Amino acid sequence: MNIARTQFVLAAGILLVTGSMARGQGIAVQQPVVQRIGVDTVVSVPDRGSLTLGGVNTAASGSRRSSLFGPGSTYGARTSGSSMSVHVTIHDFEAMDRALLQQGSSTRVRPGGNSRADAAYRQLLSRPRQSAIPTRSQADRLSRSPAKDAPAATDRGAFYLAKARRCEERGEESVAAMFYRMAARYGSSEAAAELAQERRGQ
After folding, report:
1. How far apart are the first and last CA of the chain?
2. Where are the domains of the chain?
3. How many Å apart are CA 117 and CA 172, to the nearest integer?
């Protein structure tokens, strides 16, 4: 009887030790929590402005007793928040292109270049621009004497073409492009080909 009681006490002690060891080997696994929030709405926001669309705030708390006869309990709390806003910046690329083109057309030659080329360039810029559409008197004059005006236009085209090539040799690209346009305006096919090649290169 004593032997049986001793065996029972030993078995109970082994079970208690094994149970406590099993509780001590618990592993906590943190799983990811994914939350998604969105707003399906239409708002009006000015250029370089911002607008808050909304937000969500959450809070949670809880307590847990470690065991029935344990030393105490644990307490935890959690708070989270999220908000949504929109920021607007409008880029007017057409206005930017126009400003860049106007800036390029009004660029002056750098000081220290060829003085004769600078003087010619300033003289051309000071001239009033002529309309590409001829007036009635100009059309009548051209219709009456087409053979007389044709050589003059050809000579001017060759003159501006030669100036453009000289400027291009000196590295004055902007002045050369201006003379190429003048030569093409007076009927120079070579100047028109140079301008077309430059546009394709851009």
Report:
1. 108
2. 116-128+136-201
3. 9
Tell me: the pLDDT tens digits for 109-155? 455 555 667 777 777 777 665 554 555 565 566 555 544 444 455 67
Bridge pairing between strands 49-65 and 73-88: antiparallel
Q: How far is CA 59 from CA 65, 77, 78, 79, 80, in A?
A: 21, 8, 6, 4, 6
* Distance separating alpha carbons of residues 45 and 89, to the nearest angstrom: 10
DSSP per position, 129-197: PPPSS--HHHHHHHHH-HHHHHHHHHHHHHHHHHHHHHHHHTT-HHHHHHHHHHHHHTT-HHHHHHHHH
Residue 55 confidence (pLDDT): 84
- Percent of the chain scored above 90 by pLDDT? 0
- Biggest alpha carbon–alpha carbon distance for the chain: 146
Token representation of residue 181: 């346009």
Distance between CA atoms of 121 and 52, rounded to whole angstroms?
A: 55
Determine the Cα–Cα distance for residues 167 and 118; give it in Å rounded to an integer. Answer: 11
